[in-house]
Each structure stands twice: as C-alpha cells, then as structure tokens.
Automatic annotation (TrEMBL):
GO cellular component: membrane
Primary site of residence: membrane
InterPro entries: ANF_lig-bd_rcpt, Peripla_BP_I
Residue intervals passing through the bilayer: 749-769, 839-865, 877-902, 936-954, 974-991, 997-1019, 1031-1048, 1054-1074
Domain Receptor ligand binding region: 359-683
Name the record gives this protein: Receptor ligand binding region domain-containing protein
Keyword entries, A-Z: Membrane, Transmembrane, Transmembrane helix
Domain of life per record: Eukaryota
Protein localization: Membrane
Length: 1131
C-alpha cells in the first residue's frame, strides 16, 4: 500500500489557491491517505483534485481546467496519456515515476538526473576510498542507470516487498563476503528492509559503512549511515515524504519566482527554476549522529570535492573510516585477572596466550578470511573455581562473542555452561574431566584438552607394551589423585596387569607442602610388593620424599621406576629440596605419558612464538590455541560456504565436523562426544646427561596408528637392559645394609641411657647393701645333701661365667662353637635367628613378661600372699615359684633380662642424619622414636628400673629362707656382682659396638679387677666353689687375652686356639689339684626324686615327705614340712 500518497497531500500547505492542481494517484492508495487529505484540505493554498482511479479519457475534460498536473500513479501507460492531455491543453506536467521518455517541453521530471546522482555518488565514494564496496539495487527510479555508472566490487539485487529474499542475500552473501562498505541505490522501502536485515544479522557494528542514495535515504535511520540527499529532504523518512518534500520545495520555488518576476505563468516559472530537472548542486552529504542528521561540509578543490571526514561518526560510534577495516568476529574469554596475587588466575591468563596467538595467526594469514578479523573480548569475572559470579558476568553480557572460551576446571565449566546457555552461546575449553563428555547432556560444549583418563589408559598400554605385567599403585589424598589412580587400577585389570601392593591402603596423607604424614606402612608395602613399576598419583615434592623412603628401605637406582601424574623437572630436580641430594640417582628413569602437544609445523611454530613473546607457557597454552582454532575453523567454513556464521547451532555443528592441523597435531572431535582423541601420546623420561637433568621424548604411542609403539631414544633402565616386572630382593632388611650409617646423635642417646642406668645401679646397690645386707654368712664346714636349690645355684655360677664371656671380645673367629654356647646362655638368640619381621619383639616381650613375673613374685613374697591364700592353687604355685623360679630369674636371667630390655634403646644407626630415620639395631624394619617404638621403649625402661633394684634386694632374701639351700652367697658379693654385671652389659651395648679392640682391653681389665676382688671377698660359704669361681673368671680373662692377641697377631687362628686350650687345660688341672688337697667336697647326692611326684606335689596331691624324703629328714623330723610351708616367713 502506498501510504505516502496521503502524506503527499500534507506537504501542499502554503500553495497559492489561485491555481488548480490535479494529482493522479493509484486506485490502491490507502484510506488513510484520504483521511489526512480531508483534515488538511482547508489549509491548502492550491485547490487540487485527487483522482483515485486508473486514468482514462473520461476524466480528461476535468483536467482541462487545471493549471498544473502532478502524476504519481506509477503507471507508464497513465503517464503517456497524461502527457498527451497536458500537451493538448498546454498544462505543465510534473512526473515522478515511470515518466515518458519524450522530450516534450511541457514535461517536467521532478527528480534529479540519474547521471548527475551517479556522478555525485561517485565523487563521495572516491573521496571515501571505498574500492571494495557492494551495491544494493532494485527496479526503482534510476537504480539501473546508477548501477552502470558506479564503481563497486559486488552488486546485490534487493527489491522491495521481498524481505525473505533480502534476508537470505544478506545472511548468505553480504555477511560472509567480508565487504564492509555498502551503497544503497534502491527505493526507500527496499532500503528500509535492507537496514532491518542488516540489524537482524548483527552487521550494523563498528567497522562498516553505508552510503544511501537520494531515493534510498528515507528508508534508513541508523546512527553512522551516510545519506546523499537534496537539501531540505534529508529528514524524509519514507518515499511519500520524499516526494512531498520535493514537490513542496518545487512549488515554494515557483511561488518565489512568480512573485519576484511578477509573472503569473507557472510554466515559465518552472522553466526558470530548473531546465527540465532539479540541479545536482542541491545534493549534499549528510551523516546520522545520535538520531540527528548532520550535513557534512564539502569543499571544491579544482575538480575534486573534499568532505570534512573528521566530522563523520561512523556506525558503532567509531571515528575511523571503514575503508581499511575488517568485519569483527568477536569471541569472549572468561580469563581476566581480577587479583594478581591469585596464582590460578595468572595461570589462566598464561593459558589464554594460546588464544591470543591463534587469533593473530588466523587474522594475519594471507588470503584467509579477507575482510574479517577475530577479536577477543576479555571478561574479568573469575574469582573462584567453586562458584561463578553471575552478577559480574551480567555486567559483561554485551561482551559475549560468537563463542566463549573458559580456561577453568570442569566443575567451573559446568557452572559457567549452565549460565551461558541462556545467551545462546557455545562454550569451548580444555577440561580434562569426563562429566561433560556426552554431547547429549552438554550439546553446546567442546573441549580440546585430552582427559586424564585417556592419558592413564595410554600409560597402562605403554607399560604393557614394554613388557611389565605387574605394578604398584600409590596416590595422595586429593580427590583428583584418587580418581586418576582409580582409572589406572581399572585399566590395569582390563589389560591383565597385576597390582602387587595393597590398593585398599595406598592413599598417602600429605600436607599442603607435599610432605607425607604417617605413610611409612604404605611405602613399606610398596617395597615389600617387589614391584618394579610404581604408578604414583602424587605431587613432585611428595615423589621426592617417596624416593627418600625407598632408599631408607634399601632400594637403589634401577630397583624401582615410577610413572607419575605430573612431572615438572624444575620441581623434582630442585636442589634446595632436602630430599634431592639423597634421591638424585633414583630420579633418573621416572617417566610420564601425556598427549602430544606442540606437534607438527604448526605446533613447533606456535611453541617458538610463545617462547619469544611470553618466555613461559604450559601445555594448556597449546590446548587453548586449538580450542580457539576449532571455533575459528568452523566459522571459516560457514563464511566460505555462505552460511550464517553467527548462528550458534551452525558453529557447533561445523566445529564437531572440522578436522585441521593444530598446535597439538591433527584436531578432530570424537563422534557423539564433546572431546577429542590425541593421535599420539608421548613418553618422557628423566635422564642425567652432561651434568644436568633432562626429560626428553623417548617413545611414542599411537592408539590408532599402524605402528603402535615407537622408541625414539634409549630408555633409562638397568645396565643389563629392560628389568623384570618383579624385583628380586634377598636382603634381611627392607634396605641394603650398606645404606645404614653411624648416627652420632643416636650414640649419644645410648651413652646417656647407659650412664643413667649405671649411676642408678651403683646408688641403689650401695643403699640396699648398707641398709639391709651388711651381715656375714656362716661358712659351710660339714657335709650336706645337695638339694635342688643347691643344684640351681651351682648351675647359675657356671652359666654366669659363659654369660660374662659372651660380653667380652668377639670370639666368633676363634671358635664358632664356643660363641654359640656363650650366646645361648646369655639369651643372645640373634646369633641363631635373624631378628627381622618382628621376631625381636617376641624376644623382648618374653623378657618383659619375665620382669613382670619377677615383680609379681616380689609383691606376693612381701605381703605373704602365698601363705594367706594357701588354699588357692595359683598362690601355692606362686609360692613354689618363689622357692624355685626366683633364683633363676634373679641370677641366671639377670644378664639376659637387662641386656634384652636395653636392646630396645640401641638406635645408633640411621639412614640419614635424622632421628626419624634411625633404625633399631635388633629389628631393621623398625624406625626409632616413633609411636610404635616408644610403646616398647617406655615399658622396657620402666622394667629395667623396677627389676634391677628388686633383684639386688631379693637375691639375699631368697637364700635366707630356703632351709634346703646349703650353698649361701655372701650379700657383699651379690652387691658387687650386680654392679659388675650391669657394667659389663652397658659396655657390651656401647663400647663393644663402637670399638671392639678398646672394649676387649677394658673388658680384660675389669675381669682382672674382679678376680682380685674375689681374692678378698668370698663369694660363697663353700670354699671349693670359691676356688672354682676364681678359676672360672681367670679362664674368662685368659679367653679375653687370647682374643686380643688374635687381633694383634698375624698368626693362624688355630695357633691361638691351641694356646687357649692349653691355658684352659692347665686351669682345670690346677683346679682339680687344689680341690683335692685344700678344698674337699662337702656336698653329696642321694637317689633322684621322682619328677612325677614333684609335679603331683606341686598340684597338691602328694605329701612332701614322700617327694623329698632324704637322710636329712630322717635326722631332723622338724624339717619334714619345710617344703610344705612354702617359706614360713618374710624378711
């Protein structure tokens, strides 16, 4: 409908009413046209008639009286008829559209000459330097004529009333052609449709320019557009207004000419105004700025027209002309740094360097997307990986591009994805997780990062391909490490790789700094599993500490190899790390499997660019290069195929299909997923070459290649090549003995403990002696029947000699048999059994039980509980133990108990210079001074301080209250022997371990002093036993001297053995001679008691007179019940 006809009438205000004006319009003129005419008819100064019908001869008579005819019927046939009528009646004929081609003088075309418009347009285009423009044309007035005269690159047919065609043309061609300057020579209706479609297709933005011709300009009103219009017509916003403004201007000029020249001839006035056309110098260049139309001043320099270009505001508010600009393809990043102190944000920005370089590459590549430029919009809204600041993103919502790139974790990406979908955006990233893998769940998401699960799968494949059929798996307590290792465990089962360690207890609790907290049992389990390959999902600092603990447990370089989750060589080879020097040899051979990055020509070139430009980068920088290129290649395909590249579904569809050479090699999204697969995985292994650590590529794994596994550099294995899957370990300890070293601080602790025990023994012994045992004993002068207690005492004396000998110089080289005898009676069973894997603790526990039982017997004895509760079997048994067991525990077991309890403090060797690495001498599996060790050490110390003084005190008591014990020990000797034995034990635990030669000399001196003491202090009331006691100690002294001689001499061992045997034989002979002449026997034996009766007496079913019947009982019947009394009193 032609609404403009109604508007045309409005512009006829002010025309002289003396003249009649005929307006010919189409019968399709809308009713609003007539309504507006009726409203304004009274104000018109021209009387006029409107003919709302197709013109025919029936109304020709009505035109006869007209002074002026205006034809806007837009009908060529009617125009010819009107021309004939106007010619016949000599009425001036004004024509607007489809005017007759006749050169009749009565015909006035009220539009400018098409050639003149073309000339003016060309002058503007030439000044603007628009050499790469597209022209929109239609079938309207002058359009084809101007098309022939304009300079342009492309022409686009865009007729009015065909919006679907116009939209398709714009979205399929104009939008993707890269042309930034457009010239409109269509009619106003067409130009309005074109402007609408350009806005709808997001093309009215910075960097583009639009120049509308005189008949197009009423249809455009967007800020930044240039309009070529007749002065006074620049505000016309429709064709009707344009026609009316033209007609009104013409009629006003007619009035002015007629008044000025005092003529009343309209025809003459029209001829004088413009000779058959409107002069082109009335055309001017206008610019729409903030909805206001501004005329751009022009100046003639010779034949060239120069415009004030600085006064022009271009589309998008830019001051820069679009002649050299490109179409901006905006994409957005949520990687902006909001806090420079947050390392994660700086890391995100470093990764985004890959995007920046990718955009530069595609923008600068010759003949690639000419006329387009990718431009990123940085959105600084990242604050936390746990949540997104939606209010911040809302503030930057206008900055969202055609797709969005996020450098964050999968958790953050999920949150961001849910937010961005409301903006019809696609999200690109490099998330290494699997939650967003399914495109059905996340159809607007794609990741170019290889998930860790894929890399773990490749790692297990490579381990299998290298011939390893078993592994161990350890992980830290972080959720990502646990997930990573779970994938490894799952893949190991799928590939039939055995896991040797305990996977139900393989999580290391680590601190924020990476230190292991209470993880010794887990490390020991790995070592004991004998696995050669360990998959460790731990940080680098934790890995170094693991190596340190492996070394503590006896492993060396080549014994074990670790495959880990992350391996930054600058961290693992950091010399400031306290574990580095210790573990530097074991570091070599550590390997990692990762997807390929910086591959091929593109990858190498990009890596070089990153290094030159930023000096630092990560593998994720390469991933984000590819993430951008994935979107950019999809858009490029859409542009080249003439499709709408700004439609999100189009971008995502092409991104899933595109395949290109990227920074990481060939990039292609896996069908039906949001992820890509790496065409190659790289095995890197740490090596030490040329005095530095390197981590070169040693092998390639191709999941889908014809060559699956390719070794490109010799791998770091054992000197004999690829090791076996399982280590062979025959060490008695979880570490090689050579790894142990003297721990001086531990020695100091041992000396301090021994000194405290020595001082405590001397003080309490002197106190007990002075307080309780200063009395003497009666010498045995008459023969006595030897009793069971006498036999125990005699055996104790003999065994004690061997115990003392065992604490002297090492006699193993002299006589292994003698060494075994002395060790056995001193309870030194580690000469028979290797005290590993906890055996020592059973030995220690037996000594602690003996000590506890001794303390119990002392309590029972002190409080006469065995007598007070005689009717109870347990107390009768305790009474029997006091009589028969206490002498064994108090004398025979004195040295073994003290010696074994003291062993728990022997921590004078260590794997390092730390107390925590010191190892117990009797159990190399036990670290010292930890909670387990202290749980034994503290009770052992308490038992020493309880057992020793009680033994000193109760030794004399025991012999005082045994009526059948005839051999008595002098209390003074018992006190001296206690101190003497303690000294020997302590020297055996200290000096003998540190300097055996010095200890041998000190031991010999002590024995010599002890022998001298025995000359002046009678040990027993039985002289024969005193004599043998002295001879026995002289024999021990002789043995010590032989051992010292053996150390100093080069003579054969058998020579010293002969000398030893000669000396011992001489001592035995001398002893027998002395006892025959000076020391007669005062003890005799009778028939042996029945063991069965003794047992029956113990359980109360046999009388003692039947068990212990002897001559002594026959002589003195008062002693018949002596054993039944279970000790008749207490001290």
């Amino acid at each position: 409908m032609r609404l403009w006809y109604a508007v045309l009438i409005l512009f006829m205000l002010g025309v002289n009413s003396l003249y009649n004006f005929a307006i010919i319009v189409s019968i399709h003129t809308p009713s609003t046209y007539l309504i507006e005419f009726e409203k304004l008819k009274t104000d018109l100064k021209y009387s006029f008639s409107i003919y709302l019908q197709e013109f025919n001869t029936s109304i020709s008579r009505e035109l006869e009286d007209m002074d002026l005819i205006f034809d806007s019927s837009f009908s060529a046939a009617i125009s010819l008829t009107i021309l004939r009528i106007a010619s016949d009646y000599q009425i001036p004929y004004l024509c607007w559209w489809d005017c007759p081609l006749s050169q009749n003088d009565i015909l006035f075309r009220i539009y400018a000459n098409c050639d003149e418009i073309s000339k003016k347009l060309n002058s503007v285009i030439e000044f603007l330097n628009w050499t790469n423009s597209a022209v929109f044309y239609d079938d309207s007035l002058c359009s084809n004529n101007m098309l022939q005269n304009l300079k342009y690159k492309e022409k686009i047919y865009a007729p009015s009333n065909m919006p679907t065609h116009t939209s398709s043309i714009i979205s399929r061609f104009v939008k993707t052609s890269g042309i930034k300057t457009w010239i409109l020579i269509t009619e106003a209706d067409s130009s309005a449709e074109i402007q609408s479609e350009l806005i709808a297709n997001n093309m009215m933005r910075e960097g583009v320019g639009i120049l509308a011709g005189p008949y197009s300009s009423p249809g455009v009103n967007y800020d930044g557009i240039l309009k070529l219009s007749y002065k006074g017509q620049e505000y016309s916003d429709s064709k009707s207004q344009l026609i009316f403004q033209t007609l009104k201007s013409l009629l006003n000029n007619v009035n002015q000419v007629m008044e000025k020249n005092k003529i009343h001839d309209i025809y003459s006035a029209l001829v004088s105004i413009f000779h058959l056309h409107i002069p082109s110098d009335e055309l001017a260049l206008f610019n729409i700025q903030n909805s206001t139309i501004i005329q751009i001043q022009e100046t003639k320099i010779n034949t060239t027209t120069v415009y004030d270009i600085n006064a022009i505001k271009w589309i998008g508010g830019s001051n820069n002309p679009p002649s050299n600009s490109k179409t901006k393809i905006n994409f957005s990043l949520s990687a902006g740094i909001t806090n420079n102190s947050i390392t994660a944000q700086i890391g995100n920005q470093i990764m985004m360097n890959g995007v920046y370089i990718g955009a530069e590459d595609i923008n600068n590549e010759t003949n690639r997307l000419p006329g387009f430029e990718f431009r990123f919009q940085d959105i600084p809204c990242y604050t936390s990986s746990a949540k997104i600041d939606t209010s911040c993103y809302d503030n930057y919502s206008d900055n969202f591009g055609l797709f969005h790139i996020s450098p964050h974790s999968e958790a953050y990406s999920i949150l961001l994805y849910n937010y961005l979908t409301q903006f019809d955006l696609n999200l690109f990233g490099t998330s290494d997780g699997l939650i967003m893998e399914d495109k059905n769940d996340y159809p607007r998401y794609i990741s170019t990062g290889i998930p860790y699960k894929y890399e773990v799968n490749a790692l297990l494949q490579v381990i299998k391909l290298m011939g390893f059929n078993s592994i161990a798996v350890v992980r830290s307590n972080s959720s990502s490490a646990i997930e990573w290792s779970n994938w490894a465990i799952e893949d190991a089962k799928n590939y039939k790789i055995s896991i040797l360690n305990n996977i139900s207890n393989n999580i290391l609790n680590i601190s924020a700094s990476g230190s292991i907290i209470n993880g010794d049992s887990i490390i020991e389990n790995i070592v004991n599993s004998l696995s050669r390959i360990v998959i460790a999902a731990v940080p680098e600092t934790t890995l170094l500490e693991m190596f340190s603990k492996f070394i503590d447990l006896g492993l060396e370089a080549g014994d074990i190899y670790t495959a880990t989750k992350s391996l930054k060589i600058e961290i693992i080879t950091n010399i400031s790390n306290p574990n580095f020097n210790k573990t530097k040899d074991m570091i070599s051979g550590t390997f990692i499997i990762g997807s390929a990055f910086f591959q091929g020509e593109v990858g190498k070139r990009t890596e070089k660019t990153f290094m030159n430009r930023f000096q630092s980068y990560t593998r994720r920088t390469c991933d984000y290069y590819d993430a951008f290129m994935l979107g950019a290649n999809a858009i490029e395909i859409l542009i080249n195929s003439g499709k709408d590249y700004e439609k999100s579904t189009n971008i995502m569809r092409e991104a899933r299909k595109v395949k290109f050479q990227g920074c990481n090699g060939i990039i292609k999204v896996i069908d039906y997923t949001n992820l890509r697969e790496s065409e190659m995985y790289i095995m890197n292994q740490i090596m030490y070459k040329n005095n530095s650590y390197i981590i070169p590529e040693v092998a390639y794994y191709y999941p889908t290649g014809s060559t699956v596994f390719q070794i490109v550099e010799e791998l770091v294995w054992t000197p004999s090549g690829l090791p076996s899957s399982i280590r062979i370990n025959n060490w008695p300890c979880p570490f090689k003995p050579s790894h142990l070293k003297i721990f001086n601080e531990g020695r100091t602790i041992v000396w301090i403990i021994c000194s405290i025990i020595s001082l405590f023994t001397v003080i309490n012994t002197i106190f007990i002696w002075k307080k309780f045992w200063t009395n003497d004993i009666k010498t045995l002068t008459e023969k006595q029947e030897i009793s069971f207690q006498d036999s125990v005492l005699l055996s104790t004396v003999l065994i004690e000699l061997f115990q003392v000998a065992s604490m002297g110089p090492d006699i193993e080289n002299l006589s292994g048999f003698m060494k075994s005898i002395t060790s056995s009676v001193s309870y030194n069973i580690d000469d028979f059994v290797v005290l590993t894997n906890g055996i020592f603790w059973y030995v220690l526990l037996s000594m602690m039980l003996c000590s506890a039982y001794w303390v119990l017997l002392c309590i029972v004895w002190l409080f006469n509980l065995h007598k007070r509760f005689y009717n109870f079997f347990i107390f009768r048994f305790l009474g029997w133990s006091i009589t028969n067991i206490m002498p064994i525990q108090g004398n025979l077991m004195f040295i073994p108990i003290i010696s074994t309890l003291l062993d728990v403090f022997l921590c004078d060797k260590s794997l390092s210079d730390s107390f925590s690495d010191s190892v117990l001498d009797k159990d190399c599996f036990q670290k010292c001074w930890n909670s387990k060790h202290l749980s034994y050490a503290i009770p052992s110390g308490l038992f020493i301080f309880m057992y020793q003084p009680l033994a000193v005190y109760f030794r004399p008591i025991w012999q005082e209250y045994l009526p059948l014990l005839h051999i008595k020990t002098h209390p003074k000797f018992l006190m001296i022997k206690s101190v003497y034995q303690i000294l020997l034990i302590l020297l055996n635990k200290t000096l003998k371990r540190y300097d055996d030669y010095v200890h041998s000399i000190v031991f010999a001196i002590l024995i010599f002093i002890y022998v001298l003491v025995l000359q002046y202090v009678k040990a027993f009331n039985y002289d024969r036993l005193n004599m043998w006691q002295r001879i026995g100690n002289i024999a021990v002294l002789w043995l010590a001297l032989i051992c010292i001689g053996l150390k100093l001499s080069t003579e054969k061992v058998y020579v010293w053995i002969i000398i030893l045997l000669i000396g011992l034989a001489m001592l035995i002979i001398i002893g027998f001679l002395l006892q025959k002449k000076k020391y007669p026997s005062l003890l005799y034996r009778v028939e042996q008691k029945s063991i069965e009766k003794i047992i029956r007496w113990m359980i109360g079913s046999e009388e003692s007179k039947d068990v212990f019947k002897s001559i002594s009982y026959a002589i003195d019947e008062n002693e018949i019940d002596s054993n039944n009394r279970f000790i008749s009193g207490s001290h």
